[in-house]
Amino acid sequence: MKIENPILRGFHPDPSIVRVGEDYYIATSTFEWWPGVRLHHSRDLKNWELLPYPLTRKSQLDLTGVGDSQGIWAPCLTYDNGLFYLVYTVVSSFYCNMQDTKNFLVTSESIEGPWSEPIALNSFGFDPSMFHDPNGKKYLVSMVTDHRVPQKYGGRLLLQEYDPNQQKMVGTMVDIYQGEHGYLEGPHIYKRGDFYYLFAAEGGTGEGHGQSILRSKSIWGPYVAYKKNPILTSRDVPGHSIQKAGHADLVQTPNNEWYIVHLCGRPLQATNPDDHIKLPGKRRYTLGRETALQKVYWTEDGWLQLENGSNLPEKEIVWNGVAEHSAAIKNSIDHFDTTELNLEYQSLRKPLTDQNYSLMERPGYLRLFGRDGLSSRFNQSLIARRWTEFEMEAGTKIEFQPRHFKQMAGLICLYDIDNFYYVHITFDEEIGRCLSIMKSENRKIEYPVEPIPIREAEIFLKVKVAFEKLQFFYSDNGERYEKIGPELDASILSDEACYHGWFTGAMVGLCCQDMSGSGKAADFDWFEYQVKNRNPS
Questions:
Q1: Sheet bearing 168-179, strands edge to edge
Q2: CATH code given to domain 332-533
Q3: Total-model pTM
């Protein structure tokens, strides 16, 4: 059976994998999107099903006010003696000198929950990982941030024991590795034979990303690096379609084969301008950082290597198992005829309440009540799902009767609250109810089209994306669509393009704003997402 990479397409970074019996589970980062931590299940490593989120209660997670690309970072999912363990970081300040990175643990007997209230672990740095030693002890390893100027360590990993009975960290915290250059991130510890193995990502999470392996006969070190590190990277082959390879986690199959899941990205041809203030000239990645799978093997001298004998990730691998499902393209139309929102949707920073939406007030419709504006980190009425391919379409049918320009509702493509395209119904004092497009590129707001008067109660909105191109359409009958506005640059909704956060990925969804405070509602009859071409990796 062939498995095409990425296995989780679109915004699914920092994967952690665990096998329980015949079942595989992956956890990925969700950053400022709610609920927290994305979970997937598979029995064949090829077809992955989205599971309920573990962090679904505000008592577990409150991201109100956090910045773009902050929030939930690098979850680690493990299993021991009938219990799932999920550790993760909540980043509340990062693009600053003193970074706040609080690490937590939740547990559950079932992968589908309910998950416990969070246990605070420490706040030294991000990317915590739980290791269950065969001797019965448990340890937490994480990287460390350093606010000193200049930093004393470029990369540093700490290890401390965790006591599940006391539900707290115990004993001495020990430096187990100090690197000279750059962060070491995404650490994981494994035990095989006489050695403890330490996985660590290095080189940042961009195109210089790589995965290293070290080992020691004591969990406390000293750890010796493999002379052939990095064991996984794309940094030396810029033309390869799988870039940013790193941040890996290891899993063993029941028949004693070994695989790693790892972070990756598929680049556009579009690049940042040379005067970009953060990353001049860098390629853009609208789909964000994704999850890929590679087969590995243990060498005779006890190190880990990709099966292909190099350190370059494969675009396609072969697994000896049998696929449980067909690999059909997943298109979807949601008629909002259920009592709960589909798991694909996420909101920003906090759970939506009955003050934000209803699926019951008008059965068969999603009613969104207008709340904060699109720049808000506090109370937006917005739901969105991931772009999974470079070519896609999304659309909706909307009824909305704004009374003034402070009220709007429509279809949005966004990377974060600073970068989006928004086709919406609003009100203009001179022409009345109308359609407009708002563009935000790193907080610079533009309107690339003059308002278009509309009279129909129901309006159909659609967006088509093809690599760097994005075009909005509208219709009064759902059959004959007309373009609205010019062809737009989709690549601004991208990793590397954003000034204040570039760890997530492009999303498409529905939203409603009422900045007058009266909560004017919009009704959405359906929302459709279609992949037009599963782009070759």
A1: 129-132, 138-143, 155-163, 168-179
A2: 2.60.120.200
A3: 0.96
Cβ atoms of residues 370 and 380 within 8 Å: no
Token pair of 54 as six digits: 């573990």
Supply 461's token pair: 């909105």
Cα 36 to Cα 308: distance, rounded to the nearest angstrom:
35
- Residues designated catalytic: 14, 185
Token pair 């994998």: residue: 17
Domains 2-318 and 332-533 are alike in CATH topology:
no
Number of neighbours of residue 121 by Cβ within 10 angstroms: 22
> So what's the pLDDT on residue 145?
81
Which residues are within 8 A (CB) of 513 and not within 5 positions of it... i.e. 6 or more apart? 370, 371, 372, 373, 374, 380, 381, 406, 407, 408, 409
Specify the amino acid at residue 255. Answer: N
Sign of the C-alpha dihedral computed for residues 427, 432, 433 and 434 taken in this order: negative
Instruction: With beta carbons less than 8 A apart as the criterion, state whether 144 and 158 touch.
Output: yes
Distances (CA, A) of 434 to 366, 428, 513: 21, 7, 15
Determine the Cα–Cα distance for residues 304 and 302; give it in Å rounded to an integer: 7
CA-closest candidate to residue 37, choices 66, 7, 5, 14: 14
For the chain, the structural domain boundaries read: 2-318, 332-533
Report the C-alpha gap between 166 and 157 in whole angstroms: 24
Separation of alpha carbons 426 and 450, rounded Å: 12
d(CA 210, CA 129): 18
- What per-residue confidence (pLDDT) applies to 334? 97
Given this structure, which CATH class describes domain 2-318?
A: mainly beta
| In contact, 139 and 160? CB cutoff 8 Å | yes
Single out the residue of 511, 491, 492, 379 nearest to residue 442, CA to CA. Answer: 492
Distance CA 454, CA 424 (A): 11
- Blockwise average pLDDT, block size 10, the chain, 537 residues: 96 98 98 98 97 97 94 97 97 77 96 97 89 97 85 82 97 85 83 96 92 96 94 97 97 96 98 95 97 98 97 93 66 93 97 96 98 97 98 98 97 98 97 97 96 95 98 95 98 95 95 97 98 70
List Cα–Cα distances, 400 to 179, 424, 448, in angstroms.
57, 10, 22
Q: Are 376 and 420 in contact (CB under 8 A)?
A: no
Q: Are 398 and 424 in contact (CB under 8 A)?
A: no
The pair of structure tokens assigned to 537 is 């990796």
Place of tokens 């782009």: 535
Q: Which two tokens stand for residue 230?
A: 């990095």
CA atoms within 13 A on the CB side of 460: 14
Task: Count CA atoms closer than 13 A to 81's CA, side-chain side.
Answer: 8
Phi, psi torsion values for 74, nearest 5 degrees: 45, 70
| Contacts for 436 with CB less than 8 Å, ≥ 6 apart | 408, 423, 424, 426, 447, 449, 451, 452
